[in-house]
Specification:
Layout (H helix, E strand, L loop, with lengths): L2 H22 L3 H12 L3 H22 L1 H7 L14 H6 L1 H4 L10 E4 L9 E4 L1 H15 L10 E5 L2 H4 L5 H10 L1 E5 L5 H14 L3 E4 L1 H13 L10 E5 L5 H11 L3 E7 L3 E6 L5 E3 L4 E6 L8 E7 L10 E10 L11 E8 L4 E2 L5 E2 L1 H6 L7 E8 L4 E8 L5 H15 L4 E6 L14 E3 L3
Parallel strand pairs: 3-4, 3-5, 5-6, 6-7, 16-19, 17-18
Antiparallel strand pairs: 1-2, 7-8, 8-9, 9-13, 10-11, 11-12, 12-13, 14-15, 16-17
Helix pairs in contact: 2-7, 3-4, 11-12
Length: 441
């Protein structure tokens, strides 16, 4: 390692500790150690801690919010009997969901990117962010990240990128030892410039949107640009990590991808380990599957955030579908495992006979398919779907017939599939690519 890189890392590490001491107090290192100790303890200890935090949150919600005071009727309810928290309810009763023990100044306003429609506004508190960061630090070290190391971030959320060019953000990027590639603007010139920066600064980890990471890896592969740095690992987050995304990116960057599952509303939900299992963050959230058999039958994921006392999220329908596992992971960590993360509920198609078809079935049909540059399948009704395609010179009529037949095989032979050839499939406000959209399910 060069003297310059060593000095930069040492400076950044010192700055990270100074920042966390300012945010979390002089006992930051003790808090970090306690976080590590809990996550590395037995499952019984982890679940006992989670249960204690859950009881405290429910009691607080009943005592300090008008919404939950009316809904719960008691400060020690059975959580399975609490009605689900919907996005529409948050929009309609935002003030009543906020705790009266926090002043307006103590509430931190936040919002989703609006991947499923109108952005959702909500509030969090400083302790929520402190606890969230402690958990993120723990899980990111599974990938090989540590304070002070250089990191490339490929992101597309407007809320994170809109101030990326101002002097404050540039200062933050400097002391954090980070550099960014805008996932909204993946032009050839920007990707080539980022490749040159990688060669010069040699980041040790990458944090990225899966679709943006895939586009960058595809650009490098097609232009025979081979990064020479030795990455410790890649963290993918905020979107579904499709198998062909993982395969190409791991081939190009010659390292492993660790999938991270979370939401702006509730923070980090689960993280993939070295064995490929998705471990649930029981320190910060209580996760349920809305299914009669959560270990056998997939259902909607419900999240209770255990640290946001400014505006409690209890049994929040986050909009994803998953399945639990009762296994103990061979990696040795005792955190429960989310066996499958099947994607957005809005990406789950429904057939006339009531069968659910997950969006992954359709995206698989496009893996390594010549002739298609971009695609999007929209289920308008039970009888009609629209397939939007951006095609290239390898497109043939047989490819189109193959895709239509695969869609009909899943949804029904009598379903109408209209094909629309377009120049580009635009990104939604969130920056997350939506390959499958159901307006029925």
């Amino acid at each position: 390692m060069s003297i310059h890189r060593f000095t930069k890392r040492l400076f950044s590490k010192t700055a990270w500790y100074a920042y966390n001491t300012y945010r979390k107090g002089t006992d930051f290192r003790a808090q970090l150690s306690q976080t590590d100790s809990l996550f590395n303890s037995s499952r019984d200890n982890i679940l006992a801690y989670q249960c204690k935090r859950l009881k405290k949150l429910l009691r607080h919600a009943y005592q300090t919010t008008s919404y939950y005071r009316e809904l719960l009727k008691t400060d020690s309810p059975d959580i399975s009997q609490i009605p689900l928290l919907e996005k529409g309810t948050i929009r309609e009763q935002l003030a009543d969901l906020c705790s009266d023990s926090f002043s307006q100044k103590q509430r931190i306003k936040n919002a989703t990117g609006g991947s499923t429609g109108t952005p959702l506004t909500f509030y969090q508190d400083r302790n929520y962010w402190n606890q969230r960061n402690l958990s993120v630090y723990y899980f990111d070290r599974w990938v090989g990240w540590d304070f002070g190391q250089s990191q490339l971030i490929i992101w597309g959320a407007l809320a994170d990128l809109e101030n990326n060019g101002n002097w404050k953000q540039k200062l933050n990027n400097f002391w954090r030892n980070q550099f960014w590639l805008n996932g909204f603007q993946l032009t050839d010139s920007e990707m080539y410039n980022t490749y040159q920066i990688i060669e010069k600064l040699k980041p040790e980890t990458i944090l990225a949107y899966p679709s943006s990471l895939y586009q960058f890896a595809k650009f490098l592969s097609e232009n025979e640009l081979k990064p020479n740095n030795s990455l410790r690992g890649i963290i993918s987050s905020a979107e579904m990590l499709h198998p062909h995304y993982r395969k190409l990116a791991e081939t190009v960057f010659k390292t492993r991808i660790y999938n991270r599952y979370g939401g702006r509303e509730v923070g980090l939900i689960a993280m993939e380990c070295s064995e490929g299992r998705m471990h649930i963050n029981c320190r910060d959230i209580y996760l349920e599957i809305d299914s009669g058999q959560p270990y056998k039958q997939p259902g909607e994921i419900l999240i209770t955030q255990l640290n946001n006392f400014a505006m409690p999220f209890i049994r929040y329908r986050i909009g994803d579908i998953g399945l639990l596992s009762d296994e103990v992971c061979p990696c040795g960590n005792q955190l429960p495992v989310l066996k499958e993360l099947l994607g957005r509920s809005t990406a789950t198609f429904r057939t006339k006979n009531g069968e659910l078809i997950h969006g992954g079935y359709f995206t698989q049909q496009f893996y390594d398919l010549d002739g298609v540059t971009q695609f999007q399948l929209i289920q308008e009704t039970l009888e009609q779907s629209v397939l939007k395609l951006v095609i290239n010179q390898q497109w043939t009529e047989d490819t189109g017939n193959y895709l239509i037949q695969k869609i009909k095989d899943a949804l029904g032979s009598d379903v109408s599939v209209s094909v629309e050839f377009v120049d580009e499939i635009t990104l939604p406000m969130s920056g997350k690519r939506e390959f499958t959209i159901s307006k029925v399910a």
